[in-house]
Design a protein that fits this description.
Blueprint: E1 2-9, E2 17-25, E3 28-33, H1 41-46, E4 49-52, E5 57-60, E6 62-67, H2 106-112, E7 115-120, E8 128-136, H3 142-145, E9 146-156, H4 159-166, H5 175-199, H6 205-208, H7 211-214, E10 220-224, H8 227-239, E11 244-248, H9 256-262, E12 266-268, H10 286-293, E13 298-300, H11 312-321, H12 326-332, H13 335-340, E14 358-361, E15 372-377, E16 380-384
Parallel strand pairs: 1-4, 1-5, 6-7, 9-10, 10-11, 11-12, 12-13
Antiparallel strand pairs: 1-2, 2-3, 5-14, 7-8, 8-9, 14-15, 15-16
Helix pairs in contact: 5-8, 11-12
Length: 387
């Protein structure tokens, strides 16, 4: 067993506990005590390690809700680039699970920043890019790091699919073709599902992977920067009655009121980058705050490696500086991210029964001067910065 003491516990589901204590047992959060007096003496006797937070801020592990860590690896060129399958614009059956290299050093950067889990998947060059996986940030074997797989189906709109396949002299080369190809693919998946249920037909691997989407077990994850692309994603999701998360949503602030009424969550970012594409010309750290004020459930992303993953808390802090309430900014990289990724029953908050993914900072994680003191994943200390 492990106890974490002498810190302010930010559970993300209730008010902070100024001098609380967390009991960890068997890789789970066993109990959260509101004061040292509540801790039974026999618990203290049986505890193998007591971590003194020294007045620090105790948070659930931070969550990156959209990235490509371990798929487009840091500084090793094409050998480490498995981001996009350019041969075909529609590849729903490929999975990030088969591409993530947990040995990539960016995982170390993530852990050092207090990031304990992330949603990882294919890039945005394909109309349908394949399946995302939600994993923990520490491990040597990807299978042992999985929290949810598949976790989402990647689709993309805008310039990326157009540019990728226009060079190959094949569709899509317009936004019209992009949307049409997606509708065609979903229609075929629906027909496959209906036929399989009626005739007990054999498995078609390419369409079998759509079943979790059609049964609302996982969402479609839509890459969309421009306002028109965002609305096309929503239009198609509503046509086929699919769950949807809006990825990047760079012009979401321009149509915030409408997005608030539509009710789909948005994973906002990356904003800490140059406006290197025309469709990103309206990127702003104000977007998250404007969308949240309109009632959109938001999380924040670095889209690593577009922006380095360890900048996640800084991106949240910059969003707070530009209008997102500070507590909402903290939720955007913890509990809100967990809810959007559908893993809040495991991570994202400090509650009894959840995974013991906990990070201790020496101050507010939104502050650039704040340091990570401890990162704990599944009850094990994986990073320690205490002398």
């Amino acid at each position: 067993m492990m106890l974490i003491t002498n810190g302010s516990i930010h559970t993300m589901v209730s008010k902070p506990i100024p001098d609380g204590i967390i009991l960890i047992k068997n890789n789970k959060i066993k109990q959260v005590y509101k004061s040292p007096k509540q801790v039974p003496k026999d618990v203290i006797k049986k505890t193998k390690r007591i971590i003194n937070a020294n007045g620090g801020w105790i948070f659930p592990g931070l969550i990156e809700s959209h990235c490509h860590i371990g798929i487009q690896e840091d500084q090793i060129g094409e050998c480490g680039n498995d981001l996009n399958e350019f041969v075909s614009p529609v590849t729903p059956h490929i999975s990030a699970l088969d591409a993530v290299n947990p040995m990539e050093r960016a995982f170390q950067d993530a852990v050092k920043a207090g990031i304990t889990s992330m949603m990882v998947g294919p890039g945005s060059s394909n109309v349908v890019g394949g399946q995302f996986v939600f994993i923990k940030a520490k491990g040597k074997v990807i299978d042992d790091m999985v929290v949810l797989a598949p976790a989402a189906m990647k689709i993309a709109f805008g310039e990326n699919p157009k540019n990728a396949f226009s060079e190959l002299d094949t569709s899509p080369v317009t936004r019209m073709a992009n949307a049409a190809m997606l509708r065609e693919e979903i229609t075929k998946a629906l027909q496959y599902k209906k036929k399989k249920e009626k005739e007990k037909a054999g498995i078609d691997f390419k369409y079998e992977c759509w079943i979790p989407v059609l049964e609302h077990k996982i969402p479609i994850k839509a890459h969309a920067h421009r306002a028109d692309d965002i609305m096309t994603a929503i239009r198609i999701a509503k046509e086929f009655q699919l769950d949807l998360t809006l990825e990047h949503c760079s012009e979401g602030h321009l149509i915030a009121e409408r997005l608030g009424k539509e009710g789909f969550p948005a994973i906002v970012g990356p904003a800490l980058v140059a406006r290197y594409k025309e469709e990103m010309r309206n990127i702003s750290f104000k977007t998250a705050g404007v969308l949240a004020a309109a009632g959109v459930n938001i999380s924040i992303t670095t889209d690593h490696p577009v922006c380095p993953i360890h900048m996640l808390p800084i991106c949240a802090g910059l969003a707070a500086r530009e209008g997102l309430p500070a507590d909402e900014a903290r939720k955007a990289i913890t509990i809100n991210a967990a809810k959007i990724c559908r893993v809040d029953h495991r991570v994202g908050s400090i509650q009894a029964g959840l995974d013991a993914d906990i990070v201790i900072f020496d101050g507010d994680p939104l502050n650039t001067l704040t340091k990570t003191l401890y990162t704990i994943i599944d009850g094990k200390v994986v990073y320690e910065n205490v002398r």
